[in-house]
């Protein structure tokens, strides 16, 4: 976890090189999962006894083929219902494929549903022995690993209490510590990075990174495209149970994002409303304390009114707005964003940028004694087309410490090279390595920018005529 | 079938832990713990003996294999209870462990085996105790040697039937209710409460519909009279084991891919 992103990039390249000259760790050939649907369980029993065919078939996944080589990290992306979970379960062996095969060399560990094998009446220690057996560890191995597992799970003396007295976080910690106690050849991770508190999340990510450094192959399924970009060298885009695209992460994610945008554009009825909805600082604890958005306080109350309306409308139309409320997707227990300020905005709605420079100042709070966090800022067109996103850790910048655990950083775009339009700013708070998303305020500030020109376009690129 | 048993053998260490856990879980949280697992059937046996043989000293007719009602009941009832427990729990074993099977890559057969083996772990020692109690009476008759085989085949049958019914229960949940009912009525359709001679001769064939009839008669022959099991019992045992296997195989084949999806 000490390496910087440039090293990360080099490792990605190295993984591709390994790929060509060794046998695949995972070889998936035309795998498919079909569910037999029966009108009534009676028909299911009749089919079972007589062998007659009384079902309709539903294919959750069909004709998926790909190979993974040692050290590669594959990110699986796709909308809900695309077959991602089915694929992961087939690879983990908890589902039987209807057709095709998935061959895996070596040990496979799946972090799918942590703690599923635990019995509430037994102590954590007893459950370790049993759940260890479920994942194929024999008693001697578990005995040898036990102290390390207990240490990693941070359960201490609670290990001898019944699991039913544990908090859900404790169960997950124990389960994660157990399944990752032995390094596998293939690690399957399903959104598991969002478990436990921030501190434990960080430990999880560090352990997975360590596996990765040791040459473990990883298959990672996530809705967080940020994480997929950070961790994976290849990506698989699933759609309607089939492979839409497989290949280099950047190429696949670019197509996926383009498709997502197209989808939201066709679905959206009231883009302005969405802009305001997104700008809700609403549910973060700091919002109520009046801390954030001090520059645009004039619009603040206004925006919240608009939010309430937007939510009601969304409810009536039965639409769901994924773009969400700042902080909704991330835990805000310890590290969190405090404020995002855009300088030089006027009082109109949405506010107009009255300067040629765009200066975004982000404040964040971390636990005392933590290293300087990384702060990310994303600039988008108001209807969601990304223009640029920047993170301090990638560029070697670090926020300055105002007080113990309170950090501030300003990002300046001098002579903002954009055409006239409405733009939104999002802010992200990462840990020092940029792997754990501690907090995110999506589309927290909307502003308009006017650049007098007669030619159409979005940005003014550096150029010269000759 | 073989495939399943091979998989189970490969995971025998796991299976041992599972059996132990199943037994411990039954009375987890009670002060007695594991003692209750054995105390229940032992107390039932003691009650039969005290009530029928000591207090009322009831006697069976001349044609019965023994005179004492309590003793007669115990020899039939203990194996029957073992069978009922293995089959009853076994039938719902797959449904009950649905969450475990859906989230861990383990063969479903382990769940049925676990349940049947934990019943065996309770009743095998009790049946062995019962056999020991009869050793002095028959002065070490050789027929007693057939007991281990009877006990093992009884649990083998319970496993085959439990697996079969567990798969059917996964397809149609009503199976569990039907099995529970059949087991509660089954005791009357066997020579456990009354000697076979008390049944009307024309209707005795009905008794053979109960798979345990063959075993109960065999236990009575061996324990009460010190004789080898009758040839009818032996044929009954072989036919029931064969039939259960023959029916189980195609069901396993048809359900293999989707069994876990049904749970």
Describe what you observe in this structure.
The complex is a heterodimer of chains A (466) and B (263). Chain A has 466 residues and is α+β, with helices and mostly antiparallel strands. Chain A is built from twelve helices and 17 strands. In chain A, the strands form four sheets. In chain A, strands 5-6-7-3-8-9 form a six-stranded mixed sheet, with helices on both faces. In chain A, strand 14 (400-403) and strand 15 (406-413) form a beta hairpin. In chain A, helix 4 (124-134) crosses helix 6, helix 5 packs across helix 6 (168-179) and helix 10 crosses helix 12. Chain A is globular. Chain A starts with a helix and ends in a 17-residue tail after the last strand. Mean pLDDT of chain A is 75; it is low at 1-19 and 270-332. Helix content of chain B is 71%, strand content 0%. Chain B has helices at 2-10, 12-26, 34-55, 69-91, 93-96, 98-103, 109-134, 146-171, 174-186, 212-225, 231-255, 259-262. In chain B, helix 2 packs across helix 7 (109-134) and helix 4 (69-91) packs antiparallel against helix 7 (109-134). The longest helix of chain B is centred in the middle third of the chain and has 26 residues, at 109-134. The radius of gyration of chain B is 19 Å and the shape is globular. The A-B interface holds A 35-36, 41-42, 44-45, 47-49, 51, 92-98, 110, 112-113, 116-117, 119, 121-122, 126, 129-130, 133-135, 138-139 and B 11, 13-14, 17-18, 21, 24-25, 28-29, 99-106, 167-168, 171-173, 175, 250-251, 254-258, 260-262.
